[in-house]
Amino acid sequence: MRLSNKQVDRIATGVFYFFAFLIIVILGGLIGYILYRGIGHISFDFLTSPPQTFKVGGGIGPQLFNSLFLLVLTMLITVPIGIGAGIYMAEYSRPGKFTDFIRLVVEVLSSFPSIVVGLFGLLVFVNYFDLKFSLLAGALALTVFNLPLMVRITEQGIRGVPREQKEAGLALGLTRWKTITKVMLPVALPTILTGTILAAGRVFGEAAALLFTAGMSSPRLDFTDWNPFSPVSPLNPLRPAETLAVHIWKINSEGIAPDAAQIAAGASTVLIITVLLFNLGSRWLGRYMYRKLTASK
Amino acid sequence: MKKTMLVMMTMVLALTLAACGSKNGNETSGGGGAEGLSGSILAAGSTAMQPLVEQVANKFMADSKYSGITVQVQGGGSGTGLTQVSEGQADIGNSDIFANEKFKDGDATKAEELVDHQVAVVAMSTVVNKDIAIDNLTKQQLVDIFTGKVTNWKEVGGADAKIVIVNRPSSSGTRKTFEKYGLGTASEDLPGNIQEDSSGTVKKLVGETPGAIGYLALSYLDDSVKKLKLDGVEATPDNVKAGTYPIWAYQHMYTKGEPNEAVKAFLDFMLTDDIQKTDVTELGYIAINEMQVTRDESGKIVKK
Amino acid sequence: MKATIEPSTRSSEGANPAAPTPGEAVSQPMNVSSNQSTGGKPSGNKPVARKRSRSGNEWFGKTYTMICVSVLIITIFSIVYFVASKGLATFFVNGVSLKEFLTGVKWAPDGEPQTFGALPFITGSFMTSILAACISAPLAFCAAIFMTELMPKFGKTVMQPVIELLAGIPSVVYGFVGLSVIVPFLRSVFPGQGLGIAAGAIVLSIMILPTITTIATDAMSNLPRGLKEGSYALGATRWQTISRSILPAVLPAMLTGVVLGIARAFGEALAVQMVIGNAPHIPNSLFESASTLTSVITLSMGNTIMGTVQNNVLWSLALMLLTMTFVFIFIVRVLERRSLR
């Protein structure tokens, strides 16, 4: 029997609904599973205390701090360079071989496997520049990933600025650079910020590249010592730093604490929640800035 | 114009990084002060040794005598540790294997510059999934299993079940120890066998997979897996100390040349009775000064 | 992993009305003066720009952005240079034959005699990532249709954020879940130990789902309205419209997404290493322990000493990953050029 068009349509629609539903179930199951396993283990103490090597009750305090600090360091390096290169691509570049080439570079750079970047970091930042396993080496490796994203985000943001505004700036007698920084960049800021935060969320979860650059250990930290040159200061960029994602990897593979599995589950939950916050945060910020900018008129 | 800019940028980048690097370098070299030692020590290498060294380092730094010294402990693997100590990036290279087994052929001279400090002994036991009924394997049976001659548990006296081997990658120091002292021959990378580098994963897989066999350091053992005797001898600290159980290895901390005062203080601290009896033992290692036998890198055993 | 970012930022821009609107709002009063410089292309502004370029300010801007761009270029060249110099040492310094490396099936860097056949890893990498794409692509297509055709509102408010979140989950967590859920499941259903290409491909397929979905969704929402409406006007059912009008139109974009997904899967390390089993052999079934390029690198890098042949050969594998990235980008470019025509 041949099915009529209507029947085929109904079946196909059913299939689409089924798969869409399936994806949501998989996702919900995945996130639910991680949260379910770990949420019970999260407490203020867990979030602030240092890990224990072989006793019960270790926390993830230093790791959480390291992850956030590493993110800040990475952004400090990436944002100025990324925005600069993005501006170049949007405003200064002329169509031609050189621009095509840079575009290719950005594309390739953003698809390099993280492990290759990690190895490169090990060879160049850790060994060659003698930074040892350190936050700085980790931040530089992460910059390699983040830079192309920043460039792309900025370029899109700047290109999204209406032409009239740019021309108005130039017509008022501003230099091109002034027009970009004083007129176009503020307008593009919401787009750039939203993209940056989304990118930051991914940096937060990166582990493969950091295994070889930021190291797998966190030294004793003295949270009262804020002198960045002291070796025990949390702010010292030349100290090794194990991030949350690396910590999960480590305790999954070598952990000998009796509650290693719970700690891994708890840490995974913290990681997921943080990424969730980044996503929500970028949405919220985008909406907030949109409102603020339109109101400021 | 573009080219000059490029060169300029490279130089700026390189200079900044070099500056950071050299500053760090100065800090690392420990100096002997008048009223106590100061400096910072970097120990890198074996991930399996990391918990032990970290634990001892924390105690060391808490000791008021050594408050001027900072010890940083890093993983990265034995190979990385030996590379870094040999190139001067780390003060101590942690390794679970003799350095000249890693530095081969052309690099053998590099191993000669390194001074070995043995700080503990780790013993390994063959472990199987809990549903395996047997509790002893002879050395020959073990060899047959790990070289693929025997593929079913019934051939070695167990129930009818396929043997699943959970091995380590061929670069692993744990595997080398197991092959050298447990099997006496190299094991095969058989098709279908599982290879994991980390003890945690090995434990998890052996514990979950029916018919699985693997090997673990005593410090990782718990009741999720079953320990097997080797030729009737159980892997216990006492049997290792007496030299009757063969599968064990030294935990090495290599320095390049003789250690400076700060590093020496740390290494001496590691060997004190107090540390050896408490932390080393608690973490599942065997105190080095309780060993009644010594063994050199060729495997020759001498009674103390 | 980074290949996903481009599409999702693109879509987040679409989801967030902030970008274009405030510009329009502010630009209103300025419109008057904008007539002076016609065109607005760089060439149109040249006289103005040149006149001001003497002021150090403009020079600063140009120099600064140029430096930023050169950082990008230096980075990529140094990555290629350093990885290649290490990776090629295997062949030129240690004298391993390239033919053996690419076609040999026995991997025993510590054996007697040493053999360096990397074919098992190469096949392992290709099999896992292509299989992952095969699982992921139909799902992504369905999800994209669902979000653009069936329930756009639900898709925008629930599904898209959820899929974006999927892209943000760290790979270690994927590996962790794979090892605790997927491996035991496969072990109980299929023969074998659960570890293997199938487990790796399933984990990867979830990881690359966002990449393909976002690109497919973007392509569908960018289709000219007339295409769909014309089809409906001719009396076609929804399924006919989807299969005869939409699918052919978005196919090139879908393919781009699939290739980017494969590229991401190819380079993923930790999650795969945790679930694939790592036996250095070409497996006989999907449920038998196997290896990928990335898994063998993560497994052995820390255990080997820099400068030895055992270490150099791992760099050769890394060089191979690097080369494959270029190949994937090249394929994407070709696909994009074709879809432009």
From TrEMBL, chain A:
GO biological process: phosphate ion transmembrane transport
Locations listed in the record: Cell membrane
Organism: Paenibacillus herberti
GO molecular function, one term: phosphate transmembrane transporter activity
Transmembrane region(s): 12-36, 68-89, 101-125, 131-149, 183-204, 260-281
UniProt keyword list: Cell membrane, Membrane, Transmembrane, Transmembrane helix, Transport
Membrane topology according to the record: Multi-pass membrane protein
Tagged with keyword Cell membrane: yes
Family: Belongs to the binding-protein-dependent transport system permease family. CysTW subfamily.
Annotated GO CC locations: plasma membrane
Domain ABC transmembrane type-1: start-end pairs: 64-282
Xref: PANTHER family: ABC TRANSPORTER PERMEASE PROTEIN YQGI-RELATED, PHOSPHATE TRANSPORT SYSTEM PERMEASE PROTEIN PSTA-RELATED
Annotated InterPro entries: MetI-like, MetI-like_sf, Phosphate_PstA
Record protein name field: Phosphate transport system permease protein PstA
TrEMBL record, chain B:
Keywords associated with the record: Cell membrane, Lipoprotein, Membrane, Palmitate, Phosphate transport, Signal, Transport
Chief location of this protein within or outside the cell: membrane
SUPFAM superfamilies, sorted: Periplasmic binding protein-like II
GO cellular component: plasma membrane
Localization per Swiss-Prot or TrEMBL: Cell membrane
Residue intervals of the PBP domain: 38-273
Signal peptide: 1-19
Record PROSITE patterns: PROKAR_LIPOPROTEIN
NCBIfam families hit by this protein: ptsS_2
Subunit structure: The complex is composed of two ATP-binding proteins (PstB), two transmembrane proteins (PstC and PstA) and a solute-binding protein (PstS).
Summary of the function given for this chain in its UniProt record: Part of the ABC transporter complex PstSACB involved in phosphate import. Involved in the system for phosphate transport across the cytoplasmic membrane.
PANTHER family in alphabetical order: PERIPLASMIC PHOSPHATE BINDING COMPONENT OF PHOSPHATE ABC TRANSPORTER, PHOSPHATE-BINDING PROTEIN PSTS 1
UniProt protein name: Phosphate-binding protein
Species per Swiss-Prot/TrEMBL record: Paenibacillus herberti
